[in-house]
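User: I'm curious whether this sequence folds into something compact or stays loose and floppy. Could you predict its structure so I can see for myself?
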Amino acid sequence: MGEEAQTTISFRAMTEADIPALVGIEAQSFYDAWNENMLRNEIANELTTYLVMECAGKLVGYAGFWLVAGEARVAVADEERGQGYGTRLTAALVNKAWELGATAMTLEVREGNIAAQKVYLTCGFASEGIRPNYYEDNHENAVIMWLYKEGAGHE
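Assistant: Here's the prediction. I'll summarize afterward.
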């Protein structure tokens, strides 16, 4: 990715206006894709933070988390994958979590999703376990990954 492309990437808070584009990204990214109402509920929830990533004004991905134990989602549009956007989006999400007072983050990822695991490893997450038969569609295992904020006291 050239320097010019990097300067056109921006992150902002997700809004209801983003939902139609996000429904498409959800369908491309997840077996249990969220619908419009589910995304609206996430935006309205006071415990959640969601960011969208735009490249040259086009929404290319989004990520979010619950500030308490909960589900995080990171998704990049199919046609935009392989360009480092997942790593940049995950890093922005981690920075936002630290800014909001989080001291650790956890996520699960399909055992066969090596590309996503590489993104999370690049962002500092470490594999700390397996949840057997976690995913309903094919009973694939989930890899549990954790990231701890420096100086937060985790050994």
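Summary: The chain has a mean pLDDT of 86. The CA atoms of residues 2 and 51 lie 23 Å apart.
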